[in-house]
Hints:
With 383 residues, this protein is an alpha+beta fold. The chain has helices at residues 40-50, 63-76, 107-117, 123-144, 158-187, 216-241, 245-262, 269-278, 283-293, 298-336, 340-382; strands at 4-7, 10-14, 16-22, 25-30, 35-38, 54-55, 79-81, 98-105, 193-198, 201-206.
Amino acid sequence: MQARLWLSGQCFECSVERIAPAADGWVVKTRARRYFRFDAASVALLRKLMGINALDRDDPAQASDIGFLQKRLIPLGIYALQGAQAAVPKSHASSGAMHWHRQLLAARHVRPLAAALAPLFSPWLLAPLMALCLWIHASYVLNTAGQIGYHDLLTYSPNELLLLASVAIVRGLLHEFGHAAACWRLTRSVGAIGYGVFIGTPVLYCDVSDIHLLPRRSKAIVGLAGTAMDIVLLALFVVIGGTDASVVKVYWLSMAAVLLNLVPFYRNDGYWVMNDLAGTSDLLKESLQACWSGTARTRDWLMLGFTALCVIGVLLLAIAFALQFGPEQLAEAAVLLPSFAGVVLALVTTLQYAALGFGAFAAAKTVSSGVQTRLNASRSVSV
């Protein structure tokens, strides 16, 4: 492979690190960890350019090669003028609702830890480990289901809050290291771990962009790896902590968070795993387009039906909470204030309102996406 290409006395450097086949073409990865989807013809041209060291403007046979270099590869940053500071083109991929983020652990710090955890995702080790942990969870749920009620999840002592926060932080970090370890095992590459704000909610994330180079089932493994770490951690937590009231409370809250992250409603792990298994980039959007165009399949109707049930469920929860549970909790908090229990109840109730707001926003965005897809389809038909 030629790292440099000469044209009209100028030297251009190639930043391609890897070219890998994908379900819908090819993925080109650069050394800056940027990814581009190319069709077979474009990849053939790229490989041709990577195999030579100079182009001649006076040669008519090379006109298409020069055009491809100047119109596609240089604007994308795949080739850049040697010694020049290449401008990073704007990404055409949506960043979703992650409007703000910061790096917590650089890639050079994540890689050794990911490599150490990677053997956990060997099928021969992971399968029995998951079976054991799921058995522990099933036994614990059956033994403690009668010890926990809705009101128990609203009140906390200082020690319980400290335990809950500690478990949440450790679980969040290990969740991301689960993604990192699986990505490292399958690609021998992983990026940084960071934190950010996703629709007003603080979240952790891991850069596992190299999954673009993997087949869809391997992508799904990386997507589920974080949940696997959650399952292992919470199993260890209950084995060590037992059935103490504070442990039971923290366990049920943590397990609820794990399960909600798997419900494929709005851009969470469950949604992306479902997309990976289906071989799509955005199954809900594609299902809406198929519905409006009259080409929907069983898969599309199932996706739309599930999304509709989620939207209805969020609306019913919002109505019930707004009319009964929310006002009752606020009234109880007002009586208890300024005690610690009153402050905690007021904070928990506020967080519940925020969670319902998040759900309502997701539902509204889903409906809006459907309307916009319908309008686009109508315009296409009109044209």
